[in-house]
Design a protein that fits this description.
With about 350 residues, the chain is mainly alpha-helical. It contains 12 helices and 4 strands. Strands 3-2-1-4 form a 4-stranded mixed sheet, sandwiched between helices. Helix 3 packs antiparallel against helix 4, helix 3 runs antiparallel to helix 7 and helix 6 packs antiparallel against helix 7.
Length: about 350
């Protein structure tokens, strides 16, 4: 029982098949903080380079809207067209910013998990609306971690904002005598400083959160030894059946090899441990070919078949060892052995002629 419990512990790294199945179900190592900081960074970059244009477009929009409304009588008949016109202008004004946010969000997610459409991840599941399971998820370890991260992030951002505002306090009092545009400009610059500093802090938090999500994802993907065995059985088949198939294949290959022994010209032996059957046909073969070989019991069977078929047996221990190690069945001998094999074949041919 102790061994069974130990085997069930998830201590093994996930297999590629397990990772692919988890990915198909939408289970990937992804941090929401990375997407958040990517959107914030994209917005800062957008306003840094396009703030003047955005403000002027906004002022023009408000000026034109108020001018048109002053010169237009609002009635039940034209209210729809007025709202539609204002909505279209707002959409036109906000379109570049929204497009920037969308691109940043997509790139942040693709950078983390790659691009793949997973229909299973968006399939409706009744377990997600189960109040009992929902209550359990509310007090799960993941929820606790997210709560701690949110509190930590709020504290850090609040502290950074406090330090930034504290450094700018000296410039707030002179604003009393400044123009409206100067006050707005100062507030905008101070806000940008707060957001920029916050962005750097959030980048560090996002990297730490991604590393944690990666570690937690790998931990959840770990498998027990039994799970790996079951997966191997599903993908590759039962090891017992596979071993039996390999054994049958070896037996069939051995039978085919034994059928070639009577066709050989000579059997080179070691003298009892090894046996290599050679055949040479100058019309169809470029060099002598090994048609059968074996050691131990197989070598004994080759010798027996050779005696029954009248195939000469030649004892040459060094040559037999080299042929057994270097040449596989149905392969021709290497150039370095031409001379030694030719002498043996010449001897065999002379015996046949005699």
């Amino acid at each position: 029982m102790a061994e069974l419990d130990k085997d069930q512990e998830r201590t093994e790294e996930a297999t590629p098949k397990r990772r692919e199945e988890a990915r198909d179900q939408g289970q990937v190592a992804k941090s929401r903080e990375v997407a958040s900081v990517a959107i914030l960074s994209a917005c800062l970059i957008y306003f840094y380079f396009g703030a003047d244009s955005f403000i002027h477009q906004l002022m023009d929009f408000m000026k034109n809207s108020f001018t048109e409304l002053r010169n237009t009588t609002v009635t039940a008949e034209n209210i729809q067209s007025i709202l539609f016109s204002c909505g279209f202008r707002v959409l036109y004004l906000m379109a570049p910013l929204m497009l920037t946010i969308c691109i940043a969000s997509i790139l942040a997610n693709v950078a983390q998990v790659g691009f793949k459409i997973t229909p299973k991840a968006i399939e409706p599941k009744f377990s997600k609306i189960d109040p009992i399971k929902g209550f359990g998820r509310l007090f799960s370890r993941q929820s606790l971690v997210e709560l701690i991260k949110s509190i930590l992030k709020m504290c850090i951002i609040g502290f950074v904002a406090y330090l930034t505002v504290k450094r700018e306090l000296a410039g707030i009092i002179p604003l009393v005598n400044q123009s409206t545009w100067s006050i707005v400009s100062y507030i905008a610059k101070t806000s940008f400083k707060i957001l920029l500093t916050t962005c750097w802090v959030l980048i560090i938090l996002a990297v730490m959160d991604y590393l944690y999500q990666k570690w937690d994802h790998e931990k959840n993907l770990k498998m027990s030894r039994q799970e790996i065995k079951d997966e191997n059985k599903q993908t590759e088949g039962d090891p017992i059946i596979k071993a039996r198939i390999r054994r049958l294949q070896r037996e069939m290959a051995r039978k085919r090899m034994m059928a070639n022994v009577p066709k050989a010209d000579v059997i080179i032996t070691n003298p009892t441990h090894l046996a290599i059957a050679l055949k040479y046909d100058q019309d169809t073969m470029a060099a002598p070919t090994v048609v059968a070989k074996g050691a131990g019991y197989v070598a004994e069977k080759i010798r027996e078949l050779a005696k029954e078929s009248g195939i000469p047996l030649v004892e040459n221990k060094p040559l037999a060892q080299v042929l057994y190690k270097m040449v596989e069945v149905s392969e021709t001998i290497p150039d370095s052995l031409y001379k030694a094999v030719a002498e043996i074949l010449a001897y065999v041919y002379s015996l046949k002629e005699g």
